[in-house]
Amino acid sequence: MRILYDDQIFTNQQYGGISRYFSELIKRFDGVENSCNVSTLFSNNAYYNKEVSSKVCSFFPNNNFRGKGRIMRSFNTEISKYAVQKGGFEVFHPTYYDPYFLKVIKKRPFVVTFYDMIHEKFENQFADLKMDIKIFQHKKRLLEHSSKIIAISETTKNDIMEFFDVDASKIDVVYLGNSLQNFDIGHRPLVEDDYVLFVGNRGLYKNFDFFITAIASLLINSNLKLICAGGGDFSPFEIVLIHSLKLENRVVFKKISNDDVLANYYAHALFFCFPSLYEGFGIPVLESFACGCPTLLSNGGSLPEIGGDAALYFDPTDGESLRKAMEELINNNVLRLKLKEKGFERLKQFSWDTTFLETLEVYKSVI
User: Fold this and answer.
1) Half-sphere exposure of 105 (CA within 13 A, CB side)
2) In contact, 226 and 196? CB cutoff 8 Å
3) For the ranges 60-64, 191-195, 345-349, 351-355, which has the lowest average pLDDT?
4) Percent of all residues in the chain with a pLDDT value above 90, rounded to a whole number
5) Are 92 and 142 in contact (CB under 8 A)?
6) Of residues 259, 262, 247, 248, the one with CA closest to residue 190
7) Which partner for 202 in 143, 208, 267, 307 could form a disulfide, CB atoms 3.0-4.6 Å apart?
8) Do residues 204 and 126 make contact, with C-beta atoms less than 8 angstroms apart?
9) For position 183, what pLDDT does the model report?
10) Yes or no: is domain 2-177+352-366 CATH 3.40.50.2000?
């Protein structure tokens, strides 16, 4: 079976769950019984690189200049169009929602993965999401023309049916995995102080501003730091907010240079907190479990579906709910140890190997 993936996510994303997902799929093709081609020439993605494919080239990785992304995208899109038009594959799997290929794919089958319904659910709450009108139209076209849809959680599947009225039989749920399972917890901590961990992007529905405002007094009174791993430098607004809350010495941004660094932050945290209003899956939940980190989750979107009984939950719109849950974890070492053990057990239900095998079954179903 021959599968074609396109460039979209590897062009647009340097780090992130979606590019991690496709990289993990690509690495598992054996090239004998099942093989894949990735129509990407230029990429600065951290996961899809020369270790995965000798054909991919970095694109001025250390230089930022006007139009860099547009130029890289232009090259890669043309390469992807040509690859789709040429054929030579049995199933096409685009890596994001741009339907550029519909004019050239003809009657060949394609599968599309839906990650979440964030734009649809929160467009009235966040102006930036409302302005992105194309994504709704793109999703609609892909849903209409695709041979099969992969949803990364039951929550996402239900949301697809709610917003687009798609028949349930067209949607298969395939859970994701995590890549931090083999971390050696004996490594020296990169942060010596006691800290709570926040991972990844902080904007919009990630709920970061609400989060630090709600927990400011707890951090001060409990003498804790908040480590923000990844997600880019603090914005000017975030810097002002942090100062206004008198947290300038407690809320610290840390870059993630590789998986070992990220795993170290998880493994030595007092606990990990994910205050997002909504997630279509939530790979950081599994990362936290894998590193033996007690886990505190919002009850938004799919997080309870993924976390199960291995996490403590709170209402991401209620500051008192968040503070109460955090206080419980800060003061209860027995609870933290219990969640750690439950996290290891819960993790056994998720793996990239399972993701790959179940994805192959979806491909087979459309041939």
Assistant:
1) 23
2) yes
3) 60-64
4) 86
5) no
6) 262
7) 208
8) yes
9) 62
10) yes
Give tens-digit pLDDT for 198-252. 999 999 999 999 999 999 999 999 999 999 999 999 999 999 999 999 999 999 9
How far is residue 176 from each of residues 89, 278, 324, measured CA to CA in Å? 24, 17, 30
All structural domains of the chain with their residue ranges: 2-177+352-366, 195-347
On average, the pLDDT of the chain sits at 94
Decide if 2-177+352-366 and 195-347 have a common fold. Answer: yes
> How large is the angle between the packed helices 333-347 and 319-331, nearest 10 degrees?
100
Look up the CATH superfamily of 195-347: Glycogen Phosphorylase B; (3.40.50.2000)
**CA-CA distance, 176 to 358, in Å (whole number)?**
10
H-helix segments, 98-191? 118-122, 127-131, 134-145, 154-164
Over residues 316-341, mean pLDDT: 97
Would you tell me how many other CB atoms lie within 10 Å of the CB of residue 323? 16
pLDDT of 91 > 90? The answer is yes
DSSP 292-324: T--EEEE-STTHHHHHGGGSEEE-TT-HHHHHH
For residues 357 and 24, the answer to whether their CB atoms sit within 8 Å is: no
Q: What angle do CA 254, 302, 359 make, to 5 degrees?
A: 95
Q: What does the radius of gyration of the chain's CA atoms come to, in whole angstroms? A: 21
Burial of 248 (0-12, 13-18, 19+ CB in 10 A): exposed
Query: Residue 316 to residues 88, 153, 160, 270, 295: CA-CA distances in angstroms?
Result: 48, 20, 23, 20, 15
The structure tokens listed for 310 are 């291995």
